[in-house]
Amino acid sequence: MSFQNPVFIPGPTNMPEELRKAVDMPTLDHRSPLFAAILHPALDGVKAVLKSQTAEVFVFPGTGTGGWETAISNTLSAGDAVLAARNGMFSHRWIDLCQRHGLDVQVIEAGWGAGLPADRYEEILAADTGHRIKAVLATHNETATGVVSDIAAIRRAMDAAGHPALLLVDGVSSIGSMDFRMDDWGVDIAVTGSQKGFMLPAGLAIVAFSPRAMQAVEGATLHRTYFDIRDMARGYAAGGYPYTPAVGLLNGLKMATGMLLDEGLDNVFARHHRIAEGVRRAVHAWGLELCADSPDLWSDTVSAIRMPEGVDANRFVAHAVERYGVAFGTGLGELAGKVFRIGHLGRMTDVMALSGIATAEMVMADLGMDIALGSGVAAAQAHYRLDPATTTRKEAA
Amino acid sequence: MSFQNPVFIPGPTNMPEELRKAVDMPTLDHRSPLFAAILHPALDGVKAVLKSQTAEVFVFPGTGTGGWETAISNTLSAGDAVLAARNGMFSHRWIDLCQRHGLDVQVIEAGWGAGLPADRYEEILAADTGHRIKAVLATHNETATGVVSDIAAIRRAMDAAGHPALLLVDGVSSIGSMDFRMDDWGVDIAVTGSQKGFMLPAGLAIVAFSPRAMQAVEGATLHRTYFDIRDMARGYAAGGYPYTPAVGLLNGLKMATGMLLDEGLDNVFARHHRIAEGVRRAVHAWGLELCADSPDLWSDTVSAIRMPEGVDANRFVAHAVERYGVAFGTGLGELAGKVFRIGHLGRMTDVMALSGIATAEMVMADLGMDIALGSGVAAAQAHYRLDPATTTRKEAA
Amino acid sequence: MSFQNPVFIPGPTNMPEELRKAVDMPTLDHRSPLFAAILHPALDGVKAVLKSQTAEVFVFPGTGTGGWETAISNTLSAGDAVLAARNGMFSHRWIDLCQRHGLDVQVIEAGWGAGLPADRYEEILAADTGHRIKAVLATHNETATGVVSDIAAIRRAMDAAGHPALLLVDGVSSIGSMDFRMDDWGVDIAVTGSQKGFMLPAGLAIVAFSPRAMQAVEGATLHRTYFDIRDMARGYAAGGYPYTPAVGLLNGLKMATGMLLDEGLDNVFARHHRIAEGVRRAVHAWGLELCADSPDLWSDTVSAIRMPEGVDANRFVAHAVERYGVAFGTGLGELAGKVFRIGHLGRMTDVMALSGIATAEMVMADLGMDIALGSGVAAAQAHYRLDPATTTRKEAA
Amino acid sequence: MSFQNPVFIPGPTNMPEELRKAVDMPTLDHRSPLFAAILHPALDGVKAVLKSQTAEVFVFPGTGTGGWETAISNTLSAGDAVLAARNGMFSHRWIDLCQRHGLDVQVIEAGWGAGLPADRYEEILAADTGHRIKAVLATHNETATGVVSDIAAIRRAMDAAGHPALLLVDGVSSIGSMDFRMDDWGVDIAVTGSQKGFMLPAGLAIVAFSPRAMQAVEGATLHRTYFDIRDMARGYAAGGYPYTPAVGLLNGLKMATGMLLDEGLDNVFARHHRIAEGVRRAVHAWGLELCADSPDLWSDTVSAIRMPEGVDANRFVAHAVERYGVAFGTGLGELAGKVFRIGHLGRMTDVMALSGIATAEMVMADLGMDIALGSGVAAAQAHYRLDPATTTRKEAA
After folding, report:
1. What pLDDT band is residue D299 in, cutting at 50, 70 and 90?
2. Which partners does chain D have (≥3 C-beta pairs < 8 Å)?
3. Which InterPro entries match (chains A, B, C, D) (predicted)?
4. Chains that touch C (3 or more CB pairs under 8 A)
5. How many angstroms away from the CA of B208 is the closest CA of chain D?
6. Would the pTM of this model clear 0.90, i.e. be above it?
7. Residues of chain B contacting residue D242, judged by C-beta atoms under 8 Å apart
8. CATH number for the A264-391 domain, one of 3.40.30.10, 3.30.980.10, 3.90.1150.10, 3.10.450.50?
């Protein structure tokens, strides 16, 4: 790859200049009041991005995986039952993490390309009359398949079943790029990281706990220290941190949330939708299909594109980087070799997206696929030329 | 414009990450030996890029305009005659500068789109039997028109006329990007800047003097102090500078010349030709014409593209920046409103070039031009897909 | 504090320019081969700094606390006994972490200012004939008290007792700054972070496992996923990572280890000793005492200085930052208000150290202490003026 | 030298982090409206720093020497008489520049250590009843000797003589650090650069023209193009530049002037005075003398310190950089080997100044001088400890 070209992996994203500069700080004494002046606006900014009035936000040096561990280890105890659906690599990994922590995971097997089946969640929760299930896991945006699921529907399913379990949501590749309504959707824990919608380098696990989730913390007996939100909360209350914080990244988070809120969250989401829609039109112009089972599942942060039979998607990704210096995402797990992914999250522009689409066309042609050069570009251009005021609203499927 | 997108102005160019970091230095004592360890490799690097064994290189805090002034004020005296051709805005400005310094400029009016007419140079020089003409000015690459001229032909013209004038060449937008042979072509003074082929911020005037030019310095009576190469030469000999140097830019120049020489100058030139050729194929696919009168004049660093009658090129440039955040070059002087320019110099990639071409298509469509979206992109893609080993050689015109 | 002044906290350290630039990278695809070209040299570099031929090094997005958790959760099971001594805040916190993970910690209470009592370790281990103790914890350098302990002595104690427990060592504030001999000392797990001897921002937990520690991993049943070295090892073997790595910090680690090894570890350690010795001479010139019980315990990375009765060390630290913009370390835990700390690790110079000493003098005078201005500075200057070739050898205590 | 240590050369100064980041910009199209949004606030900021309501400010890619050339070439004609005093290397160089441009310079020889002799100016101007003298040159702060002169007195001398010459002032090492009142003092042209009080890298020549100076421009016949303010003025009026501007430096200038004005100019000057006074107290504690003839001439930006007979000041400077990695200024011209200079301008702190003073003491001791280590430090500490509200007013001499 070339640092001259944009990256099209679904995170870490291309980083805006000002965020790189915010992260690249000289050493600041994290026990001085200057630190609190970075930390608290960053936490407040995340809360606003989550559209929550009541959540408590915690930020750890870590990644989204650490965020998953934070979510379960602070609220659950060994042997607790949790309910989760598997519809791709990242939902799979969270399930795996739960199992390795001694939880009893009831797994709904959804297809890799399917959304989270709210009806199945409801059925199982309704049947759990003893409320053995303590937490429901939901992956808002399955990064491996480019599928966004309806979290509000999961909440409705839980409510319909009258089930008191906590709702834990992986929003790693959605938060900050697609609409996420922590309070409205009754999300109890939201998990994300620094390197997706917040456009920063990897290195922060970001989690938000609802008041109900906070209540569950004291009773939870899974072992935790590094990811213990109680130490974090005590530290924050004193303007500090339980260990050495990643000050530069927190400073970046303060600025990143400020940028998103200044632009207006709805504008940010509309922008992502616009860019994504252009990519999708290119895909369809090529005669290819998205991995997502139906248009209502199309993610605005990442598109997973199925390769035709006989074409190895891994070769696509390898050729793109070697020949044109451009990084796309590979297929993961069940989809390895079958899809390649175009990440279109963060502060991407139409113009950057077009360069990725144009590159993909050259790669496909090089691999012998029957692709008209310029065809996907033209379809995307036609979309990007439209008045942003009209194209940034989510179309009916 | 958006800092997320590449720029397509014909300099300053997009800057490679490592050069930005080389320029962004902490304060270094320019009277310490550390400075000489930056200065001398930078000077040697420039000399190698110029393919000269004998030139003395001088670098001033300034720009190419300062380089022009350095060239004339160090070698000429008030009232001296010089010969120059005007074929665009930058050759025009050098002529103007000479006149304002009291020189008697004999101007050959070539068209804006024409190359330098070696035959006319020869005629005039042959007629100047008294050798009143002290210097011949030649603009290697006319940035305003995208025309590269044959400097070797100018030298042959001078030799054919048996004329002893100095040959002063503006290589601002060619040196480091297109072949420049100071010794082979008998160039007496070469002028360039930091912000083109050297991929740095603006701020350095770079000039190289042949031994013959050095001999002319003592007799020259035009006033000069800031741009006096004698002070510079004395400073360099002592590892220093006659005033405060722009240390960071010099450090960048040291690294930039290293990058060019490590890549291999022929590879650098071939890369520029490849990228440029893709742009030109796009232009032709759009049914448009380059400003350059004939293919042998096509510049590999900048393409000036004629707009059809009735379309204002300034609107093109303004719309590109406002609607898509992409900077192209405007037409200058006689060409204002008639051409827009795509700069494709510096470390541009195929992929970046494609994003500029795609943007240009959207802009032209927005302005109501009859352009098939994707058509130029497809033509460029077809070129960029070809084996670099075969496409990087300059085709016969 | 002012970013113009050096910091004197015992980590994060002042960062060398080149390391900041190494960390501040554009987005790199961590699934591309470029990542392995960063990761593996970084891991190898750490191994060399640890003076180990056989260790496996793992680097997590995290901090030293995460490193502690990695050490125990990968090798121990709930209910396992571990032996540890408490001689300051950081040894205390590791003990606390073990307890919260369900381990049965046998604590040797050493004074805050004492070294690790090898004789007490030996006694207890010799008495543990049933080998219930699975791990011995040792804090090489207690950052809270400025005490360096003799890890080789702990190993000798274990060997004398014929005890098979693993030796887990916290080298967070020693590794890369003071001699650390993983293989010679029979260390089974070494723990450190990015923000001390490696001079980087906080954000990496760095751990090294001996072959014996690796063998213990499979039998360990403490829950772990984020910090599971098995996933890490599998990732590394494939040139990758089990989740999104902190690429910039890893790139910094690659460069930092290169810098240390290029300078020569013995030179690095001697440099730290020189700087530290100057600070200690200043302390003694002031008539103050170090927290460390005896000279053989003096740390070369941090000095904890006891305030006279009646002077609040917290006021010292607060006044230094408010009035002079300089950050020193506060006393922690039992030492809060009783000591202030001067961190002198990382790439500090004599000159920087002198500015910290001079600041401390002004602060003490401002607080009404009977201090001769310039007295500590003069003592340190006298030391720093000595021939580095003679002063950088560790003096007999 | 070491980039870890501050520099103590009298410019370029240590650069504040935020200014380095402001300068290190991605490529911006200097023909787009974004450029005007940088340029005009920068020009306005300079004007405010100069305390002028009426001046026109011009900024060239260049240095202070280019500023001198701008001043004379835009207002004078060959053969014009100018009056100047020589009291150090920089006043000498400006005189030399005038002579090389064909001006008839009447030189008042003041001692190297003296201030500008207003009485001699008055005498000569009064005698010039024919007003042959077109310009009076005055060096506000002679960087070579650490002497600040009274520009208001020069203006009074001109007025007393009823002389209409222009007053051209070199404020390179004063403006932005010491009080400068362009309008009050009737300064016609003020010259400075980016690398002193503006704390930026070298690379900008900054000049301000009074309305009277502007009137002189049209009649001036000295050759100029690069430094012609008429082209500059035309460019500015159109939001542009006559050639490629140094955009990053201009962006830095915008921020630097903002920082100075936000702090309050009087606070900035008081801060420089405080720091300088501490350095001077150290010098006197060492038993050494400043080069300046009397206390009223002491510069708050640079102190030139006379070495005792028999000690080579060049050895001092060389030893400081080689042994301690610290850069001081050498003696220049007549003072070579006789003085060393401590620059204390820009955003230096007490703490940084103390490290320079401490270093100087070690160097002097190393050279065999009879210096009590810590003595100068103690004297400076005593000053820096005083309440800033009382010490920042300029004491009576």
Report:
1. very high
2. A, B, C
3. Aminotrans_V_dom, Aminotrans_V_PyrdxlP_BS, AspGlyoxATase, PyrdxlP-dep_Trfase, PyrdxlP-dep_Trfase_major, PyrdxlP-dep_Trfase_small, SP_NH2Trfase/AEP_transaminase
4. A, B, D
5. 18
6. yes
7. 65
8. 3.90.1150.10
